[in-house]
Amino acid sequence: MVRPQQLGGADAGREALDEPDRPIDPLIDTAGRESLTGTAPATLYKPLPAREQITLPPDGRPPREQPPWRQDFPVDWPQDQYVARRDFSKFMVLTSAAFVVGQLWIGVQNYFRRRRGAPPIQRVAAVEEVPVGGAVVFNYPAGHDPCLLIRPRADALLAYSQSCTHLSCAVVPRVEQGSIHCPCHDGYFDLQTGRPVAGPPRRPLTRVLVEVRQGVVYATGLERRTV
Q1: Burial level of 63, CB count in 10 A (0-12/13-18/19+)?
Q2: CATH number of the domain at 119-223, please?
Q3: Where in the chain is the domain with CATH 2.102.10.10?
Q4: 151-174 per-position pLDDT tens digit
């Protein structure tokens, strides 16, 4: 146990501990915690003030020994750290709330899209996950429908079904040649439009409509074409 005159800190803390004949147990600050100190009742001890309510000058000296200018420009370490933790918690809560609202909004959109028979909105990949001059494979609108997300330039994204319109072989992008190749029967499609330019295919590749939202690519629909 420590007595009030042995505690350093702020005037606020000292005012809360101004009974020299009353011992203080730093572990007791609410009633019903007698078990922490044996069988002594909680009322026997003077509760300590909350940590974030204690003023502690940075040089460690008590407030009465501080220079006058510090009254106008106080620096309170415990309270400053408490505010920093509180602001961080608020930031995390707001960020999480924004994420949840975004996901709920996508869920609501998908619900009404399904009722209209439209494909759902689906996350494909973060933009940074798609290399410039490369592509990533994803499934849309169902798990057995392979598609290609192609990034020919840093500021451009194209997406097509990976199934060739001839006999449904898997096509391969050739970004440096500006084409998409079907190795089964040597068919070629234009990279920018998905239209056939050589070989057996006669119909364009199905285009996947995409949108970028906060650095994430979403598939939002399909465009099936005959010419």
Answers
A1: middle
A2: 2.102.10.10
A3: 119-223
A4: 999 999 999 999 999 999 999 999
